[in-house]
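Hi, here's the filled form for the chain we discussed.

Project: internal
Contact: R.S.
Residues: 380
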Amino acid sequence: MAQHVFDYHDHNLKSRRGILHTRRGPVEVPFYMPDATRASVRGLTKEQLESVGIHPMVINTYHLMLEPGALYLAGKGGVHDFMNWGGPLVSDSGGYQVYSLIHKSSTLGKITEEGARFRSVIDGSWHMLTPERAIEIQFDLGSDIMVVLDDPRPPHVSRLEHEKAVERTIRWAGQCKVHFDKLVKDNGFTDKTRPLMTAVVQGGPHIDLRQKCAHALAEIGFDIYGFGGRHIDDEGRFMDEVMTATAAALPVHAPRFALGIGTPRDIVQCYYRGWDFFDCVIPTREGRHGRIFVWDEAVHEEQSLEEQDFYRTINIQNARYRDDDGPLDPTCDCYACATYTKSYIRHLFHVKEPLGSQMAALHNLHFYTKLMKVLKNQKF
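And the returned structure, exactly as it came back:
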């Protein structure tokens, strides 16, 4: 792929910074993306998202192909026009959701060398997701960064299962690349107007399999490389060596996407191991349940965030906040903190007023975008 994608500014593996070039403009690395699963970040408006500095977002291929449908969205001009969003949109392949569905019950589908056959949870209809079909759907959605169909596996399965998953992931990535190049040509895209393509490294907790997968995908050649599967082991421990070794096995000047990661602590740990951008539902999902991310008052600028406890969480529904007239976070300048008190937002939750969860989610997204700024500038 000839397009110049990433301007890489840093001199070592840790604290990478740079500019990711997309057809909808540049994005400073590192960055975080909320999940606009069904073409919406639940409960938040376009203006609210922009107010806290959200630019790229992730849309969910699996959900959108089922409702309202890929062809329907293509007829609307793609997801950007449909949801009126001008920033870059990243679409997953749909594979993770399909595999999660199948792993829950074999009656809901089956994974074969050809792809994944699965039953819709909406109407029970059957669908076949192949590497080529996954790319076609993402072109219909009009996404700016696409993800190849891969074969994820949970960490606890046997090494043999991970070996098979790696081989299939590599084969499917090659098929996706061939079909992607064909569709770029058929649609008349240039290097500046085409979407970018992301390959996903699998291998579970096995460093040698992660390295094998990374080297094979780099040999095929993609714009972006992602970490697939879980970044924690079965005991919930961060897989430090695996994250570090996988990043080191990828091309230095290619951007690295840590898919589905995660908590503020996990993001910081991944960033200092060579990963550049992140997505997850945590800030908005936690906000809807009244859990608020708050900066620790004792954050030290002279230390990296990895070396200190830089944040804590509070449950705004607790009785202790009933008469607390301070903001959610005294260090925060988001709309929620500038406008409302803890006691008021707690009241909103207790009377089940949607404004409460909306303000909590908005604040948490602001926390995440500020976290990216701190990582970039190493200043609080």
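Let me know if anything looks off before we file it.
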